[in-house]
Design a protein that fits this description.
Order of helices and strands: HHHHH
Largest sheet: none
Low-confidence stretches: none
Helix content: 40-55%
Strand content: under 5%
Structural class: mainly alpha
Number of helices: 5
């Protein structure tokens, strides 16, 4: 299953609505190795880097993501779904 499909199945959110406008730029840059817009683009590309980046696992980023998208994408829910997908995939590899 693609990362986009996993997010959509878990949240009902389709990350395809992201236009990489960078309006979701949040003020926790020291916690991020990848900006949120870039993280969403990695999901669209089905790039596993999205599941391993520091941005995904940062709790301050998770909290700051609430309401960050001006297009209505629930980035908080997307991040939670990606964390769950990463945990699931890590369990399959053990």
């Amino acid at each position: 299953m693609s990362l986009r499909s996993a997010v959509k199945k878990a949240t009902g959110q389709d990350v395809y609505v992201c236009h990489a406008c960078n309006d979701c730029d949040i003020d926790v840059h020291n916690e991020m190795d990848i900006p949120l817009a870039s993280l969403v683009q990695l999901v669209l590309l089905n790039d596993e880097e999205a599941l391993q980046c520091r941005t995904l696992w940062s709790d301050p980023v998770l909290e700051a993501s609430r309401g960050a998208c001006k297009r209505g994408l629930d980035l908080h829910a997307v991040l939670i779904a990606l964390r769950e997908e990463a945990t699931r995939k890590a369990g399959l590899q053990d």
